[in-house]
Amino acid sequence: MPTRRVRAERARNMTVVYAVMVSIMILILIQFLLLMVALEDFLGGHRVILWAAAAGSGFCFIGSCWLIRYVLGRRAA
Amino acid sequence: MDQKPAWKDDFPISWVDDHFVTRREFTKSLVLVSCAAFCANGALVAMGALEKARGAEKPEPRKIGSVHDVPVGGSRVFEFPGPGEPCLLVRLDADRFVAFAQKCTHLGCPVLYRKESRQLHCPCHEGFFNAEDGKVIAGPPPRPLPRVELERKGDELWATAFRK
To answer: How many structural domains are present in chain A?
Structure first.
């Protein structure tokens, strides 16, 4: 039977994993919004905000990578 | 009592053998989705840059047909400056021809000529352009249609360039 301390630690880890999961989902949602805006810009032949949308999407991806690294790092520790 | 139930032969799945996705694995797959969205955005940037580079080149003049090919009030699709880039030639009067890129400036749907109202109509989102100059009359298109410069050589019509 796990002790109360171990169970508390497990619960805390789970909370972190859930928080990261939700954060990444929000970042993906932002990325999809940026993709839609970029697609509309591209199809309209305007091509003014393609770079900005790609940069925003890149930042979201870097954020996702940092979050997953944080979770995997916690697991290893 | 120890006999194996019949349903176990029909559905031989055990909890142990079943594929189990942990929360961490699911989170990792979310990162892959994020990577895919970023790649899609990057692909749009690359395609935009490619088309911009292609558009910077001066197009070769191209014969698009004879004046007798299009009746007064009629229209005809041709490709300019290259294949896969449709344009619309409209004969407004006996001696007046105009041509525009056929892609709507909203989302790229092909526009059609409406003789009765002398307008170019995009059926996708109800965009309307003036057939005289390509300016937006109504609907969501943000900019006028790019106009094609025409040159008449006897009975032949030539597309020479895009007017910005």
So the answer is: 1
- The verdict on B105 and B131 lying in the same domain is yes
Q: Measured between beta carbons, which residues in chain A are less than 8 angstroms from residue B107?
A: 40, 43-44
Q: Alpha-carbon torsion B47, B52, B58, B59, what sign?
A: positive
Q: Is A68 helix (H, G, I), strand (E, B) or coil?
A: helix
pLDDT tens sequence across B101-160: 999 988 889 999 998 899 999 999 999 999 999 999 999 998 899 999 999 888 899 998
Cross-chain Cβ contact B47/A61 below 8 Å: no
Indicate which CATH number applies to the domain containing B82: 2.102.10.10
From A35, which residue of chain B is nearest by alpha-carbon distance?
B41
List chain A residues with CB under 8 Å of B45. Answer: 38, 50-51, 54
The domain of A68 spans: 4-76
Q: Of all residues in chain B, what percent carry a pLDDT higher than 90? A: 45
| Average pLDDT for chain B | 87
Q: For residue B138, give both structure tokens.
A: 């109504």
